[in-house]
Amino acid sequence: MYVSHVALDDFRSYRQIVATLVPGVNVLSGPNGQGKTNFVEAISYLANLSSHRVGAESALVRANPDGTKANAAVIRLKVCQGERERILELEIVSSKPNRARINRTAVRPRELAYELKTVIFAPEDLQLVRAEPALRRKFLDEGVAAWRPTLSQLKTDYEKVLRQRGALLKDLKSGRADSYAQSTLEVWNGQLATLGAQLTIARENLVAQLLAPTQKAHNKIASQGREIFLAYQRQVDKTIAPEKEIEETRDLAQRLQAAMAQREREEIARGVNLIGPHRDDLEIKLDHLPVRGFASHGESWSVALALKLGLYEVLGGQSEDRSERPVLILDDVFAELDSYRRAALAEIISGAEQVLITTAEASELPESLDAHHISVRRDPQAGSIFLETETLPVDGPVEETKTEATGEQGSAS
Ligand SMILES: Nc1ncnc2c1ncn2[C@@H]1O[C@H](COP(=O)(O)OP(=O)(O)OP(=O)(O)O)[C@@H](O)[C@H]1O
Ligand SMILES: [Mg+2]
């Protein structure tokens, strides 16, 4: 699949833009701070309802220089998949639920994930291998939602129960809860255990799918011949025999519930949820050493990139039917890689149906990349705009033409 048109209203540094993209490689270049990442973030946000940069949606709505804010940001994409064309639309209103439409019909925002798949790799992803387990859980949960959109509600439901149970534990700790509230703890335990077990199994299934493509990508990018190993680490049953690991969700739910019963006093004394997949981790090793705390900067980059390329393949990156392949977004990636890894990455992405690359220095891209070039500039009045440099005359005067930047409002068709 590929995105043919993008219309943004009041999204980050974009006031209003309608831009055209092509299948194949699109390179967005321009000096720092012009709006390159903002543009690809919009596409990835619509597909994943999550930003690789911020947790708070309010940052996505355009702020004026005087500190006031636009009412809402709107992202509209025209997505082509074979003969099929769809207009996807997401409206982000600060501190209100998002609104989504497909072909102008209102849908739940998470349904957009069925229509557009993207995988983004950005400098922030280095944290994926270096930071606390929370980021790796987020990677897995977003991966599960993109891989099996029907499971995307699982994480939301789990977190809702977690919050409610957490509030109850705090009340019990402070003595505010009455005996009725105390008796509801068991009901929450049951719900948390069931959803927690489903979430765990979904993550484990994804990890099982990820392993081989991640190893393959890593073998191509990193030349040293070291192997990546991935293992989902459950908080409960750490000592379980390997052959028992693929067990029924029901059994895991029982184990989670037993663990809660065992630590009930401690949970109440501390007023926090101590048991469940919100405490799990994805263990990543290079040969026998954990990446976190051991791998070098460059090694960590290769591992993080391999994980994302692994996810790209799981989502259909090598699919026979090219229109099934996700849109691959590489935000500021090439500058970090040495020439060997740049060439390897260029080869890997050559099979993608659409790749969006952002770079401050287009000269850092491998020459072998046959790309559509767009240069991004920021104007004090108009916000970020696109200059379609590819259409400039080669030897005439270089007069930058502002194409489509002020196109018809609200239409990506
Ligand atoms: N909500 C917002 N409203 C207005 N401007 C914003 C908003 N969010 C971010 N910006 C501005 O967008 C600019 C950053 O844009 P972006 O991250 O896309 O830059 P970039 O072109 O990718 O630069 P680099 O090459 O440094 O990565 C910053 O100047 C920032 O102030
Ligand atoms: Mg950037």
Automatic annotation (TrEMBL):
GO terms for molecular function: ATP binding; single-stranded DNA binding. GO terms for cellular component: cytoplasm. Residues 389-413 are annotated as: Disordered. Keywords: ATP-binding, Cytoplasm, DNA damage, DNA repair, DNA replication, DNA-binding, Nucleotide-binding, SOS response. It is found in: Cytoplasm. Gene3D superfamilies: P-loop containing nucleotide triphosphate hydrolases, RecF/RecN/SMC, N-terminal domain. InterPro entries: DNA-binding_RecF, DNA-binding_RecF_CS, P-loop_NTPase, RecF/RecN/SMC_N, RecF_2. GO terms for biological process: DNA replication; DNA synthesis involved in DNA repair; double-strand break repair; SOS response. Pfam families: SMC_N (PF02463). Its main location: cytoplasm. It comes from the Bacteria. Residues 2-366 form the RecF/RecN/SMC N-terminal domain. ATP binds at G30, P31, N32, G33, Q34, G35, K36, T37. PANTHER family: DNA REPLICATION AND REPAIR PROTEIN RECF. NCBIfam families: recf (TIGR00611). Belongs to the RecF family. The RecF protein is involved in DNA metabolism; it is required for DNA replication and normal SOS inducibility. RecF binds preferentially to single-stranded, linear DNA. It also seems to bind ATP. This is DNA replication and repair protein RecF.
